[in-house]
Design goal:
This protein is about 40% helix and about 10% strand. The protein is an alpha/beta fold and about 400 residues long. The longest helix has 21 residues, at about 235-255. The chain has helices at about 50-55, 65-75, 85-100, 120-125, 145-160, 180-200, 215-220, 235-255, 285-290, 310-325, 340-355, and strands spanning about 35-40, 105-110, 130-135, 170, 205-215, 265-270, 295-300, 330-335. It has a four-stranded parallel beta sheet, with helices on both faces. It is built from eleven helices and eight strands. It has a domain at about 180-335: Rossmann fold. Helix 1 packs across helix 2, helix 3 packs across helix 11 and helix 9 (about 285-290) runs parallel beside helix 10. The protein is globular, with a radius of gyration of 21 Å.
Length: about 400
Amino acid sequence: MKAVSSSVPDVVRHASPAAAGGAPYIEQPVAYDAILLAGFGGPEGQDDVIPFLRNVTRGRGIPDERLEEVAHHYRHFGGVSPINGQNRALKIALEAELAARSIDLPVYWGNRNWTPYLEDAVSEAASNGDTTLLAFATSAYSSFSSCRQYREDFSRVLDGTEHDGVVTIDKIRPFYDHPGFVQAFVEGVHAAVAEFIDGGVAPEDVQVLFSTHSIPTADAERSGPRDVDWGEGGAYAAQHEAVAAWVMDRVAQLLPSAAAVPWELVYQSRSGPPSQPWLEPDVCDVIGDLPRRGRRAVVVVPVGFMSDHMEVLWDLDTEAKEAAEGAGLRFVRTPTPGVSASFVAGIVDLIQERLEGRPASDRAHATSLGPAFDVCRPGCCENVRAGFKPAAAGVAP
């Protein structure tokens, strides 16, 4: 990565004094009052499904008839997304790990698209006198939907409200290559590959597919800091590729025969119109082609996902599994980090580095791309369709 200029504006919106100057890394201690667990949100019953999808697609004018095309994924599971339950479990696990380390910080949970909403979480925190917040967004990578959109929502819930100028929200850095996050993928790939090899499948006949959410190509190209040459697919693709390569390297260290196992990055959950280019190839298309390549087994790794929410349960556990069965392939989908001990500990490590003002040179990261910035850079993760909206925790474009 190329160095980023330190010539930045004086103020970052709604930031703590330490972050307000716009430095890439905050290397001084900050006395945060609380943690804001920022989630995507999901329906918790059949009646919630369409209102939830309206929230997700707000401003795009999508009629309910089209939303029903996506709604059947949720309706298949009783209209309940697992994501809220997973965030409840994560909140409990974080509170326990913070207490175990004698870090006296409450955790407030708010969602972007469904109850409990971010507005309510911020209001609750402020009413308790907790006004200097450090947000953990439940998405690991750099892109509009996985980083900037959370920052825009932080700004939205403060702009022009009673909390404007009172509450500050800084954001934990993108954690795509933090050891606590990637450990679950190493363990999952190692176990799956070992099982196939022990079962008589030659290493070169096992295919590992690292799967993540597809996004519009134009958004991908604008992901991450703009003065870094990330290559095709921007920071979003580069970060996933780097993590996948690191995972396979670690697995080969644990299981030397796995060095012969082929792997690639694939995409899933495309939702845009056919006329709009999105990142490819699609996971199911690749699975369908694997027999032609001589593969007998496939390991699907949900590397873009923190927990088993709907895109994992439907697009991988249902559609990708069916594609593998249709192709005559043995299939394993590996675990997401969820509330594993290593991941929860990793989140608290990320919190501690901000509490301590840990120098960037001392921060944990698994790939050569990290550690990511604390304060997002000018022009980071532009939404081509909507342009730049006011956003917290980053320097304005």
